[in-house]
Each structure stands twice: as C-alpha cells, then as structure tokens.
C-alpha cells in the first residue's frame, strides 16, 4: 500500500487483523518490533537503563537493568555505539603524532569536516559545495543573517513565528538593532488563529502576500520545536521569493527528522544543529546551507575568518582573503576533531539507512502513539481532567517525529511520576509534554510502555 494514499493507522489496523491481535495490546506492539517491517536501528545506539536515570524511583520498577523509554531525541539524540571508538582514534592519534594529526588519517583535523559533507548534503538535499559543517547553530544564523538581512528604507522587516525558539527570536531582534531599526516595527510575528496551536499555511501565505514587499527576510523553523509542526517549506519559499523576499530556514528540529530538498526548493540559506535527531552529542558542530545562486561571495556583506579562505592557498599567509567556493566561505576557524568524530558516527548510520526509510517509520510510530493516546485518554473518558489536547497536527504529513500534548491540570506532577517510572521526555511551560519517538532507535513497544505508564500516572494523581 502507498503510504501517501493510505493513513499509517489504517495499515496498522490491517496488520492487527491479519495477525489476529488487538491493535491496542502490548502483544501487537511487540509483534511489530519482531516483524521489523520498518527496520529499527536501536542496536546501534547506547540506550539508557532505568537504574542510570537521575529521577528514577527504583521501588517503582521491576528490573533496574531494563532499558528506559527514551522519548527525548528532539532535545538530545542518543549516542551511537561507534562514537567512542571514533573519538578514541583521534585521541590516540594526538597522543602518538601530535601536530601531524592535522594532515594524517581519515579525519585529518585540518579538514575533518570534509569527509562528512557528502552524507550531510544528501541528508538536506543539497549539492556538496552548498553545505558545510562549522561553528554552532546560533553563530551560523548570525553569520548568514549579516549577509542576507540588508534592510532598505522600504524593505526592512523579518518574518518569523511569534513562538519561535528563543535563540531565533534573539538573533532576529539583535540583527535588526545592528541596523539601528526598531524590532517592534521590523518583526512580523506569525500567530496561530484563536484557540489553535499551529500556523495555517494559508495564513502564512496571506501574510507574505500582504506584507511581502516590506519583508527583507523570511526566517522560519522547518519543524516547530514546541508543536512539532512540519512547515510546507517549498510552498512558503516559493511564495516569499515571488514577493522579493530572501528565505532562510532554521532546521534544528527538521534535519535528520524529515526529508529535505533545499537545493530543489530554491532555499536561499539554512542552518541547523546536529545534536537532536542527528545524535552527535550536546554542543555538537553546526551545519549551514548556501544555495549556489549566492556563490558570488564577494557580492555578500559577511564576516570573514581564516578557514573561509581557500584551503589550497590558506597557508600563504598573505592576509588577502580568497574565499572558498560555496558554503565553506562562511567558516571562521578549523572544526573540532572531537565534534566531527561524534557526527561521523551518526551520519554513517543515516547514510546507510536513508532518511526516506526513517521518515516512513516515523509516521507509523507517531500514528501508533496517537492511536494509543486516543484510546486511553479521549475515548469514552468521563474524567475531563485527564482528557488530552493535541497541539501537534494530526496529519502525519504535517508533523515530524513528535507528539505534543496538553491537559487540564497537574502536568508537572504527571511529568514527575512518569520520570520516576523510567519515561524520558520533556515538559514545556506552561502545560505541555513533548514525546519524540525517534525512528532510528525507538520501538513500537516503547510507545506502548509510554502510554501505559502515562495512564497509570494520571490515575495516581487524579
């Protein structure tokens, strides 16, 4: 069956009937994992055990050596098992040859980003020279905005979500102030309609149509961190550029989560971190995309660094900048051998598995989660205090690997209770729990356990 024509839940229901199992049973979740129709790669990651979690109550779990239910990959991905060996390899090289490690080995430190670029380019749908790994997300967004936000008297606004991640809001606000402009007048903030949580594409397009001639840059999230909404990037990019706007995307919650085609969508620029769905560790190296149409770097106002100089003439040391071609021109200094080692461990897996296969599995995991939540909380539920409300789109095509829910009361207590029982997810003010079943390592039985423990915790406190 074609996933684009058949809802994942319908396929899951058909499988339950075929196997003569209850769709809502733990037996069915385990059978899904056993059959492995949409392959899991859990065996390639370290998975936290119950006894290792700081907030666990061991008196409430049967076996402390069991694995937890980790639903926090949208905040920090798990560690690939090869990461440590890759790091050790570079540490040994440092110990054994010192400075010569800059130019020796698979990850020669002076260019340790280079072996990672092909996989990264494939993951975001870009040409090789349109992508590079450098700095960190906020640094890269600032560098790109310095080049692409060049306000004029009539075109000076920046369009972003009203509830964009704080770092994006701060970046936009400070970039506006750098040009001695008023953020109140220069920021166009997209808000959902009353009593809604996500932004309608039609409303985004309407704002662009009405204000586009005064908007210099559109800077939105590919996937919204709070709601999990997947924005229609191609449609929005095309509409904004038609009005003369430049378009950039913060892909922190999109890269490694959904399929991207940045080059084909004609996106002007983009930036992302690599520690969420890309599993490269806290504070990991960032990535940028620069469309080839902007490769005439000398036409861009930008900040320069030594590593943005062409590698073949960099060590002539003549202090005359000769930019690298493409995204690499934005590099400031040499990348970290340790950070690149961690990212390589994850990209190896992505390159082997394919984002299209992970995306398919992701849709089934979130559909299954939604199905179980509806059954336990919203179907024939007489206790209104335990009814849940989704702030994530219900259409699997309009969300990433995330379901965010809110409910009437005692959210923090619920979060505390499920943590005691081995659920790892996060609470967001004022009343939201975010669950991220990452397709690389989360299982269908993880989803079942999550909902079961969530139900038990609700009953305990209500």
Topology (SSEs and partners):
Blueprint (H helix, E strand, L loop, with lengths): L7 H11 L7 H10 L33 E2 L12 H15 L19 H8 L6 E3 L3 H12 L8 E5 L4 H13 L4 H4 E4 L10 H11 L3 E7 L11 H10 L3 E5 L18 E4 L14 E4 L46 H17 L1 H24 L9 E3 L12 E5 L3 H10 L2 E2 L1 E3 L3 E4 L8 H18 L1
Helix pairs in contact: 2-13, 3-10, 4-10, 5-6, 11-13, 12-13
Features:
462 residues; alpha/beta; seven-stranded mixed sheet; four-stranded antiparallel sheet; 13 helices; 35% helix; globular
Describe this protein's structure:
With 462 residues, the protein is an alpha/beta fold. 35% of the residues lie in helices and 11% in strands. It is built from 13 helices and 13 strands. α11 runs parallel beside α13. The radius of gyration is 23 Å and the shape is globular. The chain starts with 7 loop residues before the first helix and ends with a helix.
Largest sheet: 7 strands, mixed
* Average pLDDT rating: 95
Helix and strand run? HHEHHEHEHHEHEHEEEHHEEHEEEH
Structure classification: alpha/beta
How many individual β-strands?
A: 13
SS strand fraction: 5-15%
Supply the number of helical segments: 13
Which value, in Å, is the CA radius of gyration?
23 Å
Helix content: 25-40%
Note poorly predicted spans: none
Quick one: overall form? globular
**N-to-C CA distance:** 42 Å
The main sheet orders its strands as: 2-8-7-6-5-3-4
């Amino acid at each position: 069956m074609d996933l684009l024509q058949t809802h994942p839940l319908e396929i899951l229901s058909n499988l339950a009937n075929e196997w003569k199992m209850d769709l809502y049973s733990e037996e069915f979740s385990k059978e899904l994992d056993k059959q492995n129709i949409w392959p899991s790669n859990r065996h390639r990651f370290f998975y936290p055990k119950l006894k290792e979690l700081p907030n666990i109550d061991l008196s409430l779990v049967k076996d402390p050596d069991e694995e937890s239910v980790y639903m926090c990959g949208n905040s920090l991905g798990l560690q690939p098992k090869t990461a440590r060996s890759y790091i050790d390899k570079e540490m040994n090289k440092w110990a054994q040859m010192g400075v010569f490690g800059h130019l020796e080995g698979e990850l020669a430190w002076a260019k340790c980003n280079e072996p990672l670029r092909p996989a990264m380019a494939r993951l975001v749908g870009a040409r090789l020279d349109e992508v590079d790994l450098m700095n960190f997300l906020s640094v890269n967004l600032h560098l790109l905005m310095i080049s692409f936000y060049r306000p004029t008297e009539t075109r000076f606004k920046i369009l972003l979500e009203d509830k964009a991640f704080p770092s994006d809001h701060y970046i936009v606000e400070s970039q506006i102030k750098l040009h001695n402009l008023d953020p109140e007048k220069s920021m166009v903030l997209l808000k959902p309609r009353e009593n809604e949580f996500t932004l309608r594409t039609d409303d985004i397009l309407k704002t662009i149509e009405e204000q586009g001639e005064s908007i210099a840059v559109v800077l939105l999230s590919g996937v919204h961190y709070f709601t999990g909404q997947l924005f229609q990037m191609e449609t929005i990019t095309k509409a904004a550029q038609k009005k003369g706007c430049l378009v950039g995307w913060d892909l922190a919650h999109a890269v490694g989560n959904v399929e991207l085609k940045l080059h084909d969508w004609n996106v002007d620029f983009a930036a992302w971190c690599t520690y969420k769905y890309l599993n490269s560790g806290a504070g990991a190296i960032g990535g940028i995309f620069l469309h080839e149409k902007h490769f005439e770097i000398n036409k861009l106002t930008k900040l320069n660094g030594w590593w943005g100089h062409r590698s073949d003439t960099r060590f002539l040391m003549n202090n005359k900048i000769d930019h690298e071609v493409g995204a690499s021109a934005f590099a400031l200094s040499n990348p970290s051998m340790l950070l690149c080692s961690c990212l390589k461990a994850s990209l190896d897996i992505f390159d082997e598995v394919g984002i299209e296969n992970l995306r398919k599995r992701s849709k089934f995991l979130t559909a299954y989660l939604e199905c179980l939540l509806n059954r336990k909380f919203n179907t024939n539920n007489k206790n209104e205090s335990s009814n849940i409300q989704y702030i994530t789109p219900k259409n699997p095509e309009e969300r990433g690997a995330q379901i965010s829910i809110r409910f009437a009361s005692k959210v923090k207590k619920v979060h505390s209770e499920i943590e005691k029982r081995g659920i790892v997810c996060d609470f967001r003010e004022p009343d939201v729990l975010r669950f991220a079943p990452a397709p690389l390592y989360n299982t269908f039985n993880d989803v079942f356990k999550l909902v079961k423990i969530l139900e038990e915790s609700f009953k305990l406190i209500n």
